[in-house]
Design goal:
This protein is α+β, with helices and mostly antiparallel strands. About 50% of the residues lie in helices and about 15% in strands. The protein has a three-stranded antiparallel beta sheet, covered by helices on one side. Strand 1 and strand 2 form a beta hairpin. It is globular, with a radius of gyration of 18 Å.
Length: about 100
């Protein structure tokens, strides 16, 4: 099952380059070339959970639901007062250091 890495032009949404995830270094090199030409590009690569569910036969709707769930989970950690250690504000970090 091919796992595509894509370079997308941020201005137009056009796919500029695509390759298999096993060749991701080519995508990084190509992104650098495009950025040197003045283009604003976004590299889109499948996440580890996405790769797993694809290998288990998940369809596009399942993948979209997974990505939404991950985004919601990350947002909840940022929005909650306690959150996660990586999301703590400076004042929260200072409070934890005093305890």
């Amino acid at each position: 099952m091919a796992q595509d890495v894509k370079l997308i032009d941020q201005m137009t949404g056009t796919e500029l380059f695509s390759c298999d995830i096993s060749e991701i270094e080519k995508a990084y090199a190509k992104a650098e070339e495009y950025e040197e030409m003045g283009l604003d590009v976004k590299l889109v690569a499948p996440s580890i959970p996405e790769t797993l569910i694809k290998s288990l036969g998940a369809g596009e709707s399942d993948i979209n639901k997974l990505n939404e769930t991950i985004t919601e989970e990350i947002a909840s950690h940022i929005e909650e007062e306690v959150g996660c250690v990586a999301c703590l504000s400076d004042t929260d970090e200072q409070k934890n250091n005093l305890q």
